[in-house]
Amino acid sequence: MKVTVMGIDYNHLLSGKALAEMGNEVTYISNDHKRIENIKRGYYNADEAMVIKSMDIADSFGFSADIKKSLSTANMCFISEGVSENSEEQMEHVLNTAKIVGENMSHHMFIIDRSNESMSRISQIKEIIQEELSKRNTSLTFEVIANPNFLRT
Length: 153
Description:
Blueprint: E1 2-6, H1 10-21, E2 25-29, H2 33-41, H3 46-53, E3 61-64, H4 67-72, E4 76-79, H5 87-104, E5 109-113, H6 120-135, E6 142-146
Parallel strand pairs: 1-2, 1-4, 2-3, 4-5, 5-6
Helix pairs in contact: 1-3, 5-6
GO molecular function: NAD binding; oxidoreductase activity, acting on the CH-OH group of donors, NAD or NADP as acceptor
Pfam family, one: UDPG_MGDP_dh_N
Protein name: UDP-glucose 6-dehydrogenase
């Protein structure tokens, strides 16, 4: 399967690494072009270095700032909160990411919410994605699945 992971932090890297080790092709997506370039050049923090350097599956993962292109080939898209300790900021991040997915998806997709918030957020994510698809006047279908960070990938 082709999997996108929206975001690049330690937890995202661990999740993607596990998915790649199971035989999936994983693309980490960030709209921060500089961050992507730095990672490709080998510039990352110590925690990230531990994970990235242990990824001996180079053909199974990559990094991209091209959200539309990455989502165009993905079967699954993982989203989760950012690194903020503020739960309102985390929720806003997840919902903004859901909006981006809705704006850019081009076929049926499974969207996996990796955050630790309540199940009620699943319906919010569905509503936001559907709203974006409706704005585009498309009848694409999707599924939203809860897989909190504390559960195994």
